[in-house]
Fold each of these.
Amino acid sequence: MSDLVRVASVEFLGARVLRVEFSDGLVRELDFAAALPGIFSTIDNDELFGQALVDETARTVAWPNGLDLDPEVLHGDVAPASGVAPRVVREFHLSRTT
């Protein structure tokens, strides 16, 4: 069984776009503009969306209001329960130096 992929860092890029770095070196820039209906509407403004952080316990993207996102969905391993996934703007792997 492989290790679960977790979020290593998150950076707000503007609008509804986050750059998420995962524990396996994958980096995804994700646009959440079309994926913020329902409960996610509570963070659908620049100030609140920009407060995204890494939850140190769950190692996923979270916000101060308690909302958090499944790292496996963000990584692209499973479909979101809502059926609406963020759009991948860019994706790459970090180079490992030895």
Note: The domain at 7-93 is CATH 3.30.2020.10 (NE0471 N-terminal domain-like).
Amino acid sequence: MVDYSSKIIVTIDVELEDLIPGFLKSREKDIEKVKEYLAASDFEAIRLLGHTMKGNGAGYGFDDLSVVGREMEQAAIEEAPDAINKTLDDLSAYLENVEVVFE
């Protein structure tokens, strides 16, 4: 289990600097989307969002986001609301504590 409650430093290629703020803002919006999907019991939408996060996280250099995405995807497949809420807590803590360094 990964602890997202302390500072997380992620080094990203400077060529992606313009894209990263929007990428992280979109992950914040994902939290609200998943809450809406969960309220509607739309586990397939949650699964797809988790799957996308799993793929995109590592692509941008945020490996831990890929872990959260994978866990979210699996929780949606299992239709496990408590596990989905745990991934939302993890995502929120990650976004609050991530610090990006560009090289």
Note: The first strand starts at residue 8 and ends at 12.
